[in-house]
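Worked example 2:
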Amino acid sequence: MKATFRFIGILLAVIAVASCAPPFGSVGGTLSHDTLWAVPYRVTYEINDLFVRYEDLLVFGSRQGSALPIAIDKVTIGVVENTAFPNDIIYVPLDDYYLFDSEGRKSIVVSYGGLSTRYSIVVLDPFGIGGGNGNGQNGDGITSKWWDDP
C-alpha cells in the first residue's frame, strides 16, 4: 500500500512540474519569428482602387517550423510607388487605406518583428483616368459594339 501512495505522489509531482513548463512551439512564448510571408488577395488594381489592409492581405510568420497567422493590425505596411527607388516607402496608417492614383508596377512592403517581405502588384489605367490613353491591360476604355439583327 505504501508503494502505491509513493507512486501516486511521484506521479503528481511530475504532473505538477510538467504543467509549469511552456509547451513546445508555444504561441505565447518569447521566441521571435524566423520568416515572414505576405499572402495578397489582390495583385491587380486599377487607378482609384484602394488598398485596405484588412481586406487585401494575410500575413504569416514561422516560428520553430510552424506557420502562424499574424494579426494584420500588428504589421507595418508600406507602398513603393516607383520600384526604381525601393527605399521610398509610403506607409499605410493602421486605420486608413491607400489610394492608387498612378498606373504601373508597385511594391507592397510588410514588416513585423524585425522581419520584412515584399510583393509586387500592378495598377492599370484602362479608362484613361490617370491621364493615359486608356489602353490598359483590361481593355481600351469604354467602347460600343453594334450588332445587326440576323
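Confidence is low (pLDDT under 50) at residues 21-30, 136-145. The CA atoms of residues 68 and 122 lie 28 Å apart.
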